[in-house]
């Protein structure tokens, strides 16, 4: 099985409730208590929640007011991103002791390719355990890890024994692991897609595997091929130390809901300027402008337009966002606006796997 695929040993390290854990580490009085990093009250949004708060159903992206209702004892803490960034750099320094093939996904998670590593250790499982122990000893935080033959399976596995655990999916275990997996656990399958799959009788990886490539592409568009291959353990994406940015965005949440497009245009002017600033700082440009609108009832809408040329100028970004704003009537008053640029000039098309390579080297030890 998978004989023609690259033989890799990939670790996905995911910090446990990172922002909240840093706050609890820095302030011992918060240890063991339900805390939410972010704003409370009517307009606030939860950025992260401690495991004590998660037991009550509090989670990231939830409104502060709802979080407080679910957990009356919830303690809100202002985010300190400089501190989180500082800790993140210390964690990555540990990663680089083992391999230079480190691909950060965010401040609190990263992929590591340890197929060839600086320690000369053939066991990715032991390396992951050692890294987690060092993060705990040197920094004082717990981390979870997933270990397998590619990034997709490692990412799924890292969530398996959270918090403060790890899961290795050996090559010979890959197919059974994926077949037994609830479709909601597949990285890349969101809530809406999962519901659609449920309606079509797809509940597990085994159900998904029964569907043909044609069926999946017909019912799920471009993502159909992705689902077809990942359930067969095929994900050829390499760990990229300098990961290519796929989009760049800025958004604003307003203290009061906006009902007038005139006021929204004023806000969009500042957001477009910020997006342009970030694009120019990164020396990139994009073709696709997406306007994000979150209404007062928390429903979300996006409107996109792809231009025939790359842009980074704030005036063109603003004009395109303006067109999108007037594209159709607003459904309600607005609490948040955002602009993103995608289809960047840094993107390279990912090579699709060859059907003939659908099979894993069983003797590749982990």
From TrEMBL:
CDD domains: PolY_Pol_IV_kappa
EC number: 2.7.7.7
One Gene Ontology term, aspect cellular component: cytosol
Cofactor or coenzyme needed: Mg(2+)
Any one GO molecular-function label of the UniProt entry: damaged DNA binding
Subcellular location, principal: cytoplasm
Compartment(s): Cytoplasm
Family: Belongs to the DNA polymerase type-Y family.
PANTHER family attached to this UniProt entry: DNA POLYMERASE KAPPA, DNA REPAIR POLYMERASE UMUC / TRANSFERASE FAMILY MEMBER
Protein name: DNA polymerase IV
Originating organism: Seonamhaeicola algicola
């Amino acid at each position: 099985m998978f004989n023609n695929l690259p033989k890799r040993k990939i670790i996905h390290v995911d910090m446990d409730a990172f922002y909240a854990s840093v706050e609890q580490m820095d302030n011992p009085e918060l240890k063991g208590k339900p805390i939410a990093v972010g704003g409370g009250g009517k307009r606030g949004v939860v950025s992260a929640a401690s495991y004590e708060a998660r037991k009550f159903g509090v989670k990231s992206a939830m409104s502060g007011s709802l979080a407080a209702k679910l957990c009356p004892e919830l303690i809100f803490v202002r985010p300190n991103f400089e501190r989180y960034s500082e800790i993140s750099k210390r964690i990555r320094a540990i990663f680089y002791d083992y391999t230079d093939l480190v691909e950060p996904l965010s401040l609190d998670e990263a992929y590591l390719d340890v197929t060839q590593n600086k320690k000369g250790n053939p066991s990715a499982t032991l390396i992951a355990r050692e890294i987690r122990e060092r993060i705990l000893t040197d920094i004082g935080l717990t981390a979870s890890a997933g270990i397998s033959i590619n990034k997709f399976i490692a990412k799924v596995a890292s969530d398996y024994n959270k918090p403060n655990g790890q899961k290795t999916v050996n090559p010979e275990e890959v197919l059974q692991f994926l077949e037994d997996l609830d479709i909601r656990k597949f990285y890349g399958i969101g809530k809406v897609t999962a519901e659609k799959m449920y309606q079509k009788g797809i509940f597990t990886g085994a159900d998904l595997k029964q569907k043909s490539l044609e069926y999946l592409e017909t019912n799920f568009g471009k993502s159909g091929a992705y689902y077809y291959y990942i359930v067969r353990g095929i994900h050829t994406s390499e760990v990229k130390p300098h990961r290519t940015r796929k989009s760049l965005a800025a958004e604003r949440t307003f203290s009061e809901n906006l009902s007038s497009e005139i006021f929204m245009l004023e806000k969009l002017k500042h957001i477009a300027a910020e997006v342009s600033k970030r694009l120019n700082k990164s020396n990139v440009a994009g073709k696709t402008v997406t306007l994000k609108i979150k209404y007062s009832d928390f429903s979300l809408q996006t409107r996109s337009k792809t231009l025939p040329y790359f842009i980074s100028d704030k005036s063109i970004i603003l004009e395109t966002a303006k067109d999108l704003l007037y594209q159709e009537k607003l459904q309600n008053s607005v609490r948040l606006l955002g602009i993103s640029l995608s289809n960047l000039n840094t993107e390279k098309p990912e090579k699709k796997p060859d059907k003939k390579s659908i099979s894993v080297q069983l003797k590749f030890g982990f």
